[in-house]
Amino acid sequence: MKMRTYPTHQQVDFVIVGSGPAGSVLAKELSGAGFDVVVLEQGPWMQPSDFKHDEYGNWILMDLCGGLKDSPQTLRHSPDETARTTMTPPPVIYVHGVGGSSVHFTANYWRFHPVDFKEHTQWGDIPGADFADWPVSYEEMEPYYTKVDWEVGVSGAPGPFDPPRSKPFPMPPLPIKSSGALIEKGARAMGWHAQPAQMAIASRPYDGRPSCQHCGYCEGYGCEYGAKSSALVTMIPKAVASGRCEVRTGAIVHRVETDARGRATGVVYWDGAGTEQRQRAKAVILSANGAETTRLLLLSDSARFPHGLANGSGVVGAHLMPNGNASVYGLFEHPLNEYKSVQVTRFVHDFYNADASRGFYGGGGFDGRMTFGPMMFANLAMPVDADVPAWGEGFTRALHTYPTHSMEVECHTTSLPVRSNSISLDPVLKDKWGRPALRTTYRYHPDDVKTMNFFADRAEELLHAAGAKKVWRLPVEDTNSVFVHLLGTCRMGNDPARSVVDRDHRTHEVRNLFICDGSSFVTSGRGQPTMTIQALAFRAADRIGQAARRNEV
Amino acid sequence: MHTRDAVGIGAPQGATTGAGLSRREFLAAGGIGAAWALLSSPGLAAMGASAREAAARGDAFVNLTAAQGRTLAALLDRIIPAVDGLPGATEAGAVHFADLALGGPLASARKLVAAGLADLDTRARVQQSQVAGFAQLPAAEQDRLLHTVDRTAFFSLASTLAIFGTLSTPEHGGNRNGVGWKLVQVEQRMRWQPPFGWYDAQWTHAHPEAAS
Prior knowledge:
The complex is a heterodimer.
Chain A (H helix, E strand, L loop, with lengths): L11 E6 L3 H12 L4 E4 L14 H5 L13 E4 L7 E3 L27 H4 L1 H5 L14 H16 L24 H13 L3 E3 L38 H7 L3 E4 L3 E7 L5 E7 L5 E11 L5 H8 L24 E8 L14 E3 L15 E6 L4 H8 L11 H13 E8 L8 E9 L5 E6 L4 H20 L4 E4 L39 E3 L14 H20 L4
Parallel strand pairs in A: 1-2, 1-9, 2-6, 3-15, 9-17
Antiparallel strand pairs in A: 3-4, 5-11, 7-8, 8-9, 10-13, 10-16, 11-12, 12-13, 14-15
Helix pairs in contact in A: 1-7, 1-12, 5-12, 6-11
Chain B lengths: L4 H5 L3 H4 L33 H4 L12 H14 L9 H4 L1 H10 L6 H18 L11 H8 L6 H15 L11 H5 L14 H4 L11
Helix pairs in contact in B: 4-9, 6-9, 7-8
């Protein structure tokens, strides 16, 4: 099908920056509602046939994430430090290309629970954090979660701690793996409750796409079958098929332009040939992720917006919440072969809620999986102990069994919104296009570290209860950062002094500028954000479309 | 403790302080990217895609001298040696992965590698005056020598090269004929069907899973 195109001088209804989980939903919904939409994507438009089973290319060379050369970043741990250049890996990682990070994600689709939206009310203030409620509730979000289930395509079954849902899952869970069977065994022995994973991966042919073929290359890879329900194969083709949406790739956006009245008039970008272009639009929507959306606002400063566009509050870029994470491994007698099929088939939500009796704030869940293929596992996650030397014949023998006989319990936990944890512009380093490099400032809140260690302790208990011959963990460290969940940097809120967008994703300061992506998050949830990013986007599309029809943008 | 900043200052702290964990030292951060932090070898900081462009399958070295290639091959062989009929780094051609990487993504590590290899050869000659270099030592002597240097940044990098060269996809120059995957008992296929492993084959609990 031929894609509709628009000249840059035509004032389209919406220009959307970013074609990822949020931008693609907004493009599909708004174009389907009759608006003219141009989506600008900095990366290429890859097809499922372009993806590879290449552990070194995907995990080390960052083949899908813009490579290692063009977009250097810097990192520091507190605002009084000078950020240092990091190259491999950069502090924040996201796919550069159509579909955004949904192309390489693991595809765990947990809904938020009702408590996630009002945890500040329940818990109160937390020293060192700007803890706040969301300006929306689970009840308002539920229809949009259901839309994600059915329009994007989620496989799963309800579990004992799940929030209420208005419609069943459209597809049954994917078949259990050995890690799932062991999670079931360990959880039952501990008196906990394993439940089938909820994944944006087709367990049956769905909506014109094939079902999962269990090749094993999900996390960190693009799906060669189109069975993973990424934006690339779900929302983007539908947006294009509307006949009112152009997806323009290789477009490096570096400024949102505003007029004398403080209204957005469009965006400025460099095209694939390096030529500066301007796309005019009646309204601008930023869905570029919590790092890139931040950079774009900060680069769009002017006399009227001296601290960056829509940043009168000063919180653009602040409150970065990447989710906590801990990895615990178990070695078993028989082969698990975790290199096959999807990453996750069972998870445990017994510790989802924060519990004051633990002495700190935090909650989360854990699942059974093997994040790494054998190369990364051998390099990073195998134990070094009396049985397994770091090198030599004993290491070779361990390589023969550990990769297939081990599993990981991966813990996914809350991050508190700390003001100084942020994305900002590096004052010195530039990227290939001359834009200031992304600078990450990050240090875990003490409660986040306690939460990660609490979950790692539970994961060890579960693995022992499941019969592991050996259990080991990777240490939780609080000054290192390689983040893929880029949440909270343009948070939603009713108070313009403390938030960037209102409950309908409209920026408080620019009437026709909207932001919807992970940056909108007020709290972090429990570590599987894309489901909520897409539910927010479906809701935002409704609200923005209604406003546009009323001429209120 | 190693931190990511080690990349910026060019020295893996875990290795230089003798903390011991070297390549497996791990710093948990958020999300799937956590473990990348471990790649502390300074040269890895510069990895790029050009290794693949330069991928050549011959036995001649592109970026190493023949003498360096012999020493590095012998070193990688002792990190993942063939044993009990299992293939090791030599059969995988891991040194050719390393050779290509040193011309592209690992170019900034060439000095470190050259110095480390020269040092190994010097130590080998001190240990046995009649040998030309490390590669000519008997395996047991090589191991004895390596135990004196296995906390260095150079050894940490070599260890990563041995693993990557044995287990990356063959297009990057190592893992020839997929012998690395044979070593780890991983089979590359585009399709699998359940049961995938021993424990799910035993699974009988009824859940409404998709028939496959």
